[in-house]
Amino acid sequence: MADAALSHAPKPKGATAVIVFADGHVAWGRGFGAVGDAVGELCFNTAMTGYQEVMTDPSYASQFVCFTFPHIGNVGTNADDVEGACDAALGCVVREDVTDPSNFRAMGDFPEWMAANGKIGIAGLDTRALTRRIRIQGAPNVVIAHDPDGNFDLAALHAKAQGWPGLEGMDLAKSVARSCHEDWTGGHWTLGQGYDTPGAEGRPHVVAMDFGAKDNIFRSLVKAGAKVSVVPAEATFDDIMALKPDGVFLSNGPGDPAATGVYAVPVIKRLLDIDMPIFGICLGHQMLALAAGAKTAKMFQGHRGANHPVQRVGSQWGETEGLVEITSMNHGFAVDGDTLPAGVIETHKSLFDGTNCGIAITGKKAFGVQYHPEASPGPQDSFYLFEKFVGELT
Ligand SMILES: NC(=O)CC[C@H](N)C(=O)O
Questions:
Q1: Whole-model pTM?
Q2: β-strands 247-250, 189-190: how paired?
Q3: Per-residue model confidence as pLDDT tens digits over 348-381
Q4: 25 belongs to the catalytic site
Q5: Which CATH class is domain 17-163?
Q6: Where does the pLDDT of residue 161 fall: very low under 50, low under 70, confident under 90, or very high at 90 and above?
Q7: 330 labelled ligand-binding
Q8: Which residues does the annotated region (CPSase) include (predicted)?
Q9: ipTM of the modeled complex
């Protein structure tokens, strides 16, 4: 690579962590959390709250999150804000050093939680400059290393960043999803009361394919009135049908939908053929689109944050056509809206860049959205989607 020589200022005094980019750029900072190094994609998230939920969203497998909000870690960590596999995101980049937690829900301190979960943190960087870099150059492949003694073999770290193949073509769902069937019971969480457990009697049965799901999706399905059974990413059509579902849910998850689709898309196609009601979120939406004959593509920088405006498009919305939902997002791939075949309509689009944010299959109860109606973190404008899906099940 022509631009791959290492280019950096000398290591500043007190630097105990470093980001080494595949293109040779180097950024120094102060390490916290786990010691060691890891390689992955660096993306940015603009949410101002919910860092623990972000760091435990399994869709971030093989990624580092650069938080654009400067104060991260100051409400500590707790046992309730864990969304999925704790080891999913590799680590994070933050502007300010993490202070002691100050919050009535805090059960632990963020750096200690990061260390316990094997995540590397780097603080004291200009995260605005880093975000601009990602916006201009696209999400880069990097190594982030943390050594309390400040000893780094930059050439070796650079070689590691260059040698990482990138997320395109990578199936990561199997590494973060459940490996066996689980009956899900918890509903929504309320302060002082914890999780609601309404019981499954008489409820429509949703079988949820887990590609690296956020738990709040299952809680939201329960809140909307469903009985939920979770099956692994590689569940077969027969595995799913043996549970006698009234509807099938396709979860979010990490990696390239085209790679995950190799085993999941044929199952989804068969479910569509028998008119099974289907609802997909994020990776699940992408795989529903692939099963329906559309294509997905890697985005330049992706969408990650809790304030992304999404507009309802199409006359099927009636009076609410054009309405804008403020949504939570985390995706680096997208459905190519120009490839939707006949019989698949676009239902939502991003007001940031016009990318596809929702589809529905005409004549079937099958739809998907690219964003996260379960929030965690983020606004709850789009909870109606869970009610629509569960409400239409018989
Ligand atoms: N949150 C998700 O499900 C992400 C889907 C997919 N891995 C992407 O980055 O686009």
A1: 0.96
A2: unpaired
A3: 999 999 999 999 999 999 999 999 999 999 999 9
A4: no
A5: alpha beta
A6: very high
A7: yes
A8: 1-204
A9: 0.97
Confirm if 318 and 281 have CB atoms less than 8 A apart: no
pLDDT of 67 over the 70 cut: yes
Residue of the CA atom closest to atom 5 of ligand 1: 283
Is residue 158 within 8 Å of 6, Cβ to Cβ?
Answer: yes
Can you tell me the distance from the alpha carbon of 345 to that of 388, in angstroms, rounded to the nearest whole number? 17
Query: Which SS3 state, helix, strand or coil, does residue 41 take?
Result: strand
CATH 3.50.30.20 segments of the chain: 17-163
* Ligand 1 atom with least separation from CA of 329: 1
**Position 1 confidence tier, pLDDT thresholds 50, 70, 90:** very low
- Determine the CATH number of domain 173-391: 3.40.50.880
Q: Are residues 247 and 277 in contact, defined by beta-carbon separation less than 8 angstroms? A: yes
User: Which residues are CB-contacts of 338 (< 8 A; sequence separation ≥ 6)?
Assistant: none
Q: Is 368 annotated as a binding residue?
A: no
Non-local CB neighbours of 360 within 8 Å, separated by 6+ positions = 316, 344, 345, 347, 366, 367
